[in-house]
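User:
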Amino acid sequence: MRTLSDRLAFPESPIVYPDGSVVVSEMAAGRITRISPHGAATLVADVGGGPNGVGVLADGRLVVCQNGGSTFGVGFWPYDFEGCAQLFRPVGAAEQPITPQLQMVDLDGSVHTLTTEFRSRAGRTMPLVRPSDICVDAEGGFYVTDGGTTHNRQRTMTGLLYGTPDGQLEEIVYPLEMPNGIALSPEGDRVYVAETRTRRVWEFMLSAPGRVAGARGLATVPSGGPLNIGGADGLCVAADGTILVATLGAGGVTAFSPAGETLGALPLDDPMTTNATLDTGDGTLYLTLASSGRLVAIDDWRSWLTTPRS
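Assistant: Predicted structure:
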């Protein structure tokens, strides 16, 4: 395992470029950053708020899931009692939030709002709640999860959206419970969505871009770590269809076959492993370890997988 950077401000959504550099969002700093193969960091764009998932279009522009921002600090996780970890993480609402939206970052680094709303399945215009993650398809459109928020004892129910670079955004699945990571199958005929709180990974079959033809609960991420808790965050899919889910609690990733069988886990020391991506050239796995501010690369990740528990 190689550490490419250990000074990032709650990184998310790694994107590997052909030159070996990796672009990440830094949620606690409100910026998009490029990390060179040697670890040098350069600013791509200052987007403000809380940038989460990032997708790259065919022309090189970036679409950013802007969740509006949070206040970050060291706090107990997952609960405030003896035995819990103290991690750098979101600890409250942003002091100066911005409107949740999808942002477009042009090649020169300029930023503008793509949309702040979507059309619900009932045909109503609705505001985005807290956009979480994104994946771009071969046709140039993109799938977006709207993660939702918790306020006191209430939580918003959200869903899966499909959009295009002209700012059109429509809801294609509702409801989902805290939808987060999202990725397409190698053939592009199904999209996988992770629900953080339920630990469930959904498989949605597609008949056309943005058109769902069927669904099933594919798998559930196991619990782990000192408190035996779990959560599903970002995910990516290998060329052979293996699904890798960034796993909260145990840290690292959990691997599933296209049939939903648990292939194993690659545990790491940061319980807030937030996202993962694979280099399409050499298959290197890149992970964002958010609470410790690290971007790491694992060259032969399959050999690291531990046997799943019975």
